[in-house]
Amino acid sequence: TDRLEQNNINTDLDKLTKLICTSVRDVMRSSVLLCPQERKPSAVVGSVEHTLEERISMYRTAITNAKTAGESTKARRYERGLKTLQSMLSSVRKGGKINEAEIPPPVSCGVPDGPPRPPAPAAGAATPELESPEEHAESDSAVETTPVSMETASISMQPGFDAVIEALEKGQPVDLNSLPPSLSAVDLTCYSSCVGVSAAPEAPVSQSGPVQPKTVLEALEQRMAKYKEACAQAKASGDDRKARMHDRIAKQYQSAIRSHKAGRPVNYDELPVPPGFPPIPGQQAAAPEQGFAAVLETANKLASNEADAGDEDEEEEGEKKEKETKEVSSQQLEFLEGRKKQYMKAALQAKQKNDVEQAKIYLRTAKGLEPMIEAARSGKAVDISKVPSPPGDEDEDFILVHHSDVQSSEKAEEVYSQLSKLLQEQYEKCMTFSKQFTHTGNIAETTKFEKMAERCKKSLEILKLAQNRGLEPPKHHFEERTYRTVRIFPELSSTDMVIMVVRGMNLPAPHGVASNDLDAYVKFDFPYPSSDQPQKHKTAVVKNTNSPEYNQSFTLNINRNHRGFRRVVQSKGLKLEVFHKGGFLRSDKPVGTALIKLEKLETQSEVREIVEVMDGRKPTGGRLEVRVRLREPLSGQDLQTVTERWLVLDQS
Fold first, then answer.
1. For the region Disordered, what residue ranges are annotated (predicted)?
2. Which regions of 385-455 does DSSP assign to beta strands (E)?
3. What does residue 614 show for φ and ψ, rounded to 5 degrees?
4. What is the pTM of this model?
């Protein structure tokens, strides 16, 4: 009877063992089905194609979850990464090669209901150093993706159950802690195989760390201080990207603190949590089984903050550029319409004076502005340097009133003459500056100087009218005006460089030639387009003087953006040679050389130099004045600030 009972017990135990193993195997397989990344890819494990297929599936899941959570910026970033992965996979399947370093990094699949919070360690736990997104990505990629077979795991669990069953048979006490891990551990293993990272053993807990905060405000300030400290450390180590990331997170906490003090609700789930920090009072800590996933999600959030901020910066920059373009278009439209009105008004005035031909010219010019106006209305850029200048007014356009009994003193006539001269100079100066800014496309400055010129013209009309009526000169005063001007030579094209040899001063005479008998000329070779094909020029010969006046200009053909031309400007300069013209059967004798440095052309449109004439390395005492002009500087604009006295007639 005892043997029969023992056999029945053994049979029941065998059935129980098989039942437990079967149940565990079923649970494991169901867990595998719940993990989308566990599906066996078609490619060989460990190959580039296998990696790309896993990343594509990972990015698709992340995109779906990001859209579900309403994170459009993150979804767009994942979609860009997905397109890159798909193109790489297509290239690999066609036999092409790709740069594995350019494969988009792994991302957390995310949770549609909101990112999980990292686990809160016990009070007194050590605060680990904040890990940057780059370091986290490197650590993720450094860990091998080695999913564990569920069948192998279930077989390895069987000896644990056998030991428990054997202890039960002998009537010994059983330690439940020795049983294989629960289903939560199975889920954790599945999650780690999904994201391609194996769970690392927990670090030993030390006795130092952040103090458990008593209030929400204290917790927020504690975390903000930690991120500010991490930002300072990153700046000290020269890691600007990490410093910007930590600074941005610190500002998030600063904003949350302001909201909390003002009594407004704060979304704590959006605030990244420094590793090892205790939870905020009143907030639930992450469940232990979600710890690994929460850490991954938090690290992914830290990594995505920089990219999201970059996307937002790009969007803001695009919006700013679009706004600036609209403002420029509206300014151009207003400018063009005003110029058209000026020509229409001038045509009407010419017609009233019976000058039909001039009226037709003004009318054609006004009509010619209509295509530019239409382009500006449609938002297109217009080259305002091609816009004609305002219609000019000649002296005969002023209103003349003749009085036979007008008698003016000589002193009044002198005052009228001086005032008229000053106003005319101011008018011409304003028109010159207006044209210069027109060529640079600066509408605001162009309009400003045109209005100043118009005021000068009206003052001239008032002055002329008062003089012809025999009145005393109008009251006037001088103001100190400060304005910015741009130096440009609109008569030159962008491919012109003008070299003007002005004069020589106290040039040395060669041996055997008296100073008064010096017949000097200057020649130069400009080494562009190459030293083998320089552009050669020389001045005329000025006889019988050692201080010749040349005032000769030579136009060279250049390419402003050519590397060879920039090299000549920045390093070589312009070398000039002075010669004495020989007579019959006599060769020309060298007098000396002069070198003009051209680096200033980078920021100035004209370089004026008075340089020493050298005999080898020895100064000769002679000098040469040379000017070099471009239409405008090679880099930027030649802006100058001018302060001068400005004549203003008092309004009576």
1. 95-148, 303-332
2. none
3. -110, 145
4. 0.40
